């Protein structure tokens, strides 16, 4: 019974991941982006859980709970808390939404092309879904490049991280528990540090537009 | 363990001891302990080199962590010779440093890097493969750079001089690296023995030769890679300048010898012509600049370019003549190049140490403000005078023997048994003779100026008037240097035999000791026996002089109250010749090459047009090659730098975009 539903569940989860990533490029409001990121975290957790059920490994299920807690709840909560606490400035990205969505489409096509070359021998269902992870990495990078505010940059970074995690889960059937624990805590720590940094930037310049940080070169 | 191995291990141990002492010993004792350990380090180099030169074998194997063959240090005879020369200069410089190093040049960094510099320099000739050669070469360069850095805090010009030095060192390192890379690529190995199997006529050998010649020429201060010399050496303390100009340049010569004698002997004729052109241009340009320089150290620095030019001229002539089967003359030219290298090390080290002594006593290097030091610093003046004779290639000095041998080789080179050897040789040899003749004349003028203006006549400034002789520890190396200059000139036979054995077994110059340690170059049938000539001259002159003196005693001395001087006595020191005025005719003759800038400022008395109160004359000679060649190249590089700044503007977004685009490009390439 589960075997017939399994491909559809994988498709549903990865579809949700891709959709949330595309919507992140489209939406400009910081709080809406954080909600989308939370949804993406849930989708990733669901994906891990599905893979765990298919393989019948309890450890992967625990990892999925961990992903749910960190990426679905803790990180969005930290981001939202900090964003609400300060004056909200909405994003004025360097790319308008239409061009952004077009780029997302192109990046997704590219990642499918690349993945078809790299994983040509692998015919499993999860390997078929792997290009989504690659597309998320590229979309995360696109967010990093086009967003001005430090908060949005952080979201781009997290999408990139989610993309890496997706590729890892889909191609290797998950990473060991300890490794996942370490990575998750690392990401959490990075986010906290970057938020403190963004807060200091705001105190110094009055906003978090990283275009202001131009004096880093000699 | 063979003596050579023990010697090299001893050098490693003494390096460690010297660096430790430089870092740990308190400032009061640092110069003494550091200097003595550096002297011992250099002395160990002399001993090792002498054993290796006399045929001693031995190798030091250093296992490398990198995936390659272990580094093997094993000096052959030629390496031993160079090791002796550079270490001997190192001994003199370290001894002098004990007394002369003060404040910045006696710092921890200075003494530690002095030891590192000496160590690298002494062991470069022991390298038997490309990797260890380049490694020790860089140790030497880094040591010398750190040494020069010592004075950066007190003098603003040091920084720019160092930038020039580092850039030019790295440029010559790049050339050497590229040259060896071509050789290694062609033979598939990095050992010198394997590199020597390449056919010199192949295009790889030609390319490698040009690259290596440029690289080693840069270290030997040849034009056009000499621009760092007149900037760096005046900034260096006397003993450091002596070690750099007396010893380090020999490593450049060693590199060229390595290529022309060991790795790629019997190269094509154009190699010889290229080396001769490079050497000839350097010799002429160097001595021209030296003759008009009024800073003593700049003068000596440019004179190094001249001497190295002559060494390369001899080397090039030997390559060319060997190709034309004039073996006797080719051997003599090679021998002349080696003689010149050895004698240059002796007199240039002494000259720079002398300049260091003058700088210590007067804190003045401008010849126009010196004068009258002969009476005030007799030891320094004597040693400097002897070395200046050597630099001017006058008889009974080693410089004379070397230039005599070079001229003999060139004169005998164009014909063998009455037959013209080749068109190239019959054009090149007379031209080279002309170059040497002009160089020798200008060198004489230069060193008459250097010695005469600095040590004779009356002091031209208050500082020169109050000069005192330097302490004993600094006089010892000066005197040893002067004795070497005269001794090697009086007894050239044994030296020439040792040099001839050093280039074996590839080449076997036929020289013998004749008479009172004179030299007999059998290949071209010429004999020079300075000691015998001096002895005979003494036999004749001593009675004559004695007779003159005795007869002079009989007549009372007439004291003239007013010596002839255009009707008046020369009361003021400023009425004497200065270095600038002495060189004035030369500047006029070579106006087009030197391009001096003159600034004459006349202050009139009141409203008068005819009465002059004061005339201020300023003349400066810039390095034409620097202003005409390097400056435009640097300007171009700077323009590219400004363009590159647009790409590198500090915006995080732009950097992220670069990474993103790079990632996309990689992905697209992968999927194609």
Automatic annotation (TrEMBL), chain A:
GO terms for cellular component: plasma membrane. InterPro entries: HyfE-like. It comes from the Bacteria. It is found in: Cell membrane. It is a multi-pass membrane protein. Keywords: Cell membrane, Membrane, Transmembrane, Transmembrane helix. The chain crosses the membrane at residues 6-26, 33-53, 59-79, 99-119, 125-145, 154-171, 177-198. The keyword Protein transport does not apply. PANTHER family: HYDROGENASE-4 COMPONENT E (PTHR38601:SF1). This is Hydrogenase. It comes from Cryobacterium fucosi. The lineage of its organism: Bacteria, Bacillati, Actinomycetota, Actinomycetes, Micrococcales.
TrEMBL record, chain B:
GO terms for cellular component: plasma membrane. Residues 127-426 form the NADH:quinone oxidoreductase/Mrp antiporter transmembrane domain. Keywords: Cell membrane, Membrane, Oxidoreductase, Transmembrane, Transmembrane helix. It is found in: Cell membrane; Membrane. The chain crosses the membrane at residues 6-25, 37-58, 78-98, 110-127, 133-150, 162-186, 206-228, 240-264, 270-288, 300-321, 333-358, 379-407, 427-451, 472-491, 531-552, 655-671. GO terms for molecular function: oxidoreductase activity. Signal peptide: none annotated. It is a multi-pass membrane protein. This is Hydrogenase 4 subunit B.
